[in-house]
Specification:
2 domains; TPR-like_helical_dom_sf; 5 strands; nonsense-mediated mrna decay; telomeric DNA binding
Length: 318
Amino acid sequence: QSSQSLWNRLSVLLNLLPSAADLQESGLALGNEVKDMLSDSELPDPSTNLLLPEDVALRNLPPLKTAHKRFNFEQDRPIFSTVEEMFPFQPVLCFVCYCQLMCFLLIDLEVCFCGQAAEEARRNRLMRDMAQLRLQLEVSQLEGSLQQPKAQSAMSPYLVPDTQALCQHLAVVKQLAASGRFIIIIPRTVIDGLDFLKKENAGARDSIRYLEAEFKKGNRYIRCQKDVGKSFERHKLKRQDLDAWNLYKILDSCKQLTVSQASGEDDTTGMVTIITGFQLEDPSAFSVPMQSALQAAAGASVEIKNVLEFYKQWKEMG
């Protein structure tokens, strides 16, 4: 049952093979043994059984035990030409019930189709590689268009604002996005945070309207990043310390971004910076889970900077 496609192809092949009558009328010079075999090959129980090299090679194969009972493996095999040796296959294959020759053919077909499958897999790999190269070229062209002066080349090309940065300093984020020098990445968790705050926070509502407009326009300098998956969920922490949970989720998105952009053993340090609305001068003022999240970011080579401090640094380098 697991080889359904193989049986389908085999049935097509069998229907293309000539009948015994076609072979007898082919005009080819055939030996008496082959002629006798052709004469009764389409009978329900053929009396002529020619011993083929495949029979000898597969003599002890268990699935062919019943079929091989009709052969006398001690008899001398007649000497056939290459054409004659293939003839016993032709008419008999019209009968699917003749399991011996079916097995011979299946072995050859499986080798053939395995080769086809390998070629198809190679083509699929080639298409995937080409798609990846196109993506890398697009990213390279995009990054090349970021117009960064040499003094600013040390700043991360990818900025990931958190919910606080958007709610409190949307105007600054807008300037960073409009500069053409950074790619602003908006993780799904940030959008969820804005949605959670929109009823009571005017900054959240303004940010949602701004992001919706930019996504609709297809602004290549500001992009929405899909959720990276449930494997990064921390439900207990979400209940205990929502700020720490959100930072972990943003950090997960940053890791996903650096993995997708890196090739081989490329160093991704400094590629991504999280810009936050929190003041970071005194990390000890944060909760223990929040301090752990900040340490995790440092361990992942992801910078976290206050959005106003980052903006000031950028302007000073301008």
